[in-house]
Structures
1.
Amino acid sequence: MMSAHRIALANLKGGCGKSTLALNLAAGLARRGMVCLVDADPQGALTHWASWAEPDASRQLVVKPADTPLNLTGLMSGADYLVTDCPPSLDMHITREVLQQSSHVIIPILPSPLDLWASHAVAGTLREIRQINPGLKAWILLNQVENSSALSRAMAQVLHQLELPILGTQVKRRAAYRVAMLEGKSVYQLGGRGRQAADEIETILDEVLQT
Ligand SMILES: Nc1ncnc2c1ncn2[C@@H]1O[C@H](COP(=O)(O)OP(=O)(O)O)[C@@H](O)[C@H]1O
Ligand SMILES: [Mg+2]
């Protein structure tokens, strides 16, 4: 049994919001306890962000690069929560190691049919990982959902056929996510400009942590 929540953000590809969501979920968790945010993407987006980011107001968030061989227990060292940002591939060794050592994985997906169909491959990988880590909980998280466009009927049908559960909370496309990253902040540090985004992140955390 794993002692605490270890949440991974993973997907087959880039540009779906792994790094954005990893840092904002970690910032939200830092209001609930000590958080270790692990950058397991060799491109190091979060390591760059952390190097010039404003210290999190809670001072409960540390960002660390992944170690080799990966040891999330060691990296966590007493933190209450661990969030890991994965590279844009499920086939990379590091991604598999992260998933084998995580309790939860969130798979951000853009609400386009192509991305949804690709998620069948994700489900296949998760079946393999669960042979080693049977307790791994997994969800798809729809990200960059347009405010105006309700999901079409076709989309709803594709969603229905997916093998993976979908989080009830969706993340809207909001300038706050881009602005926060540019300013070296999380959406929590944007004040009123980030309020709706922060509320959305809180709802996701409630939904994920209750399981
Ligand atoms: N909900 C969102 N609203 C607006 N922009 C977003 C949102 N999620 C991600 N982005 C932007 O989309 C781009 C890709 O996101 P990123 O987190 O880097 O994806 P990944 O880590 O999966 O490659 C970035 O420019 C990011 O600012
Ligand atoms: Mg990334």
Note: Residues 117 and 158 are 8 Å apart (CA to CA).
2.
Amino acid sequence: MKKITVINSSFRKNGNTDHLAANFIKGAKENGDEVNLINLKDIRLNFCHGCLACEKLKKCVQNDDINSLLDDIQNSDILVFASPIYYYEMSGQLKTFLDRMNPLYYRENKFKYVYALFACANGNEDSMDRAINGIKGFVECFSGVTFKGSVNAAGFTSIGEIKDSHYLQDAYDLGKNI
Ligand SMILES: Cc1cc2nc3c(=O)[nH]c(=O)nc-3n(C[C@H](O)[C@H](O)[C@H](O)COP(=O)(O)O)c2cc1C
């Protein structure tokens, strides 16, 4: 059994990213894996202040929800970042979360693999390239961690438009076979 942490950065309830995350989780749970879901819309998350106090403390000095989440992330086997594409990039809230994970840079982490789930409006899967690159930049800073792949759901604008597409099956299959 693997422990998988899914970080869903979409604030749009029942939106396209939510559907991707839900299908991935369904597959992973059916596979017997443990899933820890963090919905960024439900937590208190400030911007990183860049003080680097975390270098010594291995936690953050800010009094929001990040410290309560770090142990679970550290002890996961796999991390999955889910994001809508905003201006050809990951959402600002996901980038903020990556920055706030900086205390983990100074810890021994269990996670070895990172995946991503993206949704965007235009029909071109290349629209995810910059977001993938951003996540690869994060991954590169953690030794022994590899970016393994993503579901790039292209062509969905309104809430739940993704429902009848093959991308939900792709997300489910990824979870099931991860
Ligand atoms: C601020 C903002 C910027 C966006 N930028 C892009 C973009 O650059 N390319 C694109 O294809 N879609 C863009 N979109 C559309 C969303 O990616 C799309 O609607 C996606 O399905 C939203 O996912 P959600 O339902 O999880 O919120 C943007 C949406 C917003 C709100």
Note: The longest helix spans residues 16-30.
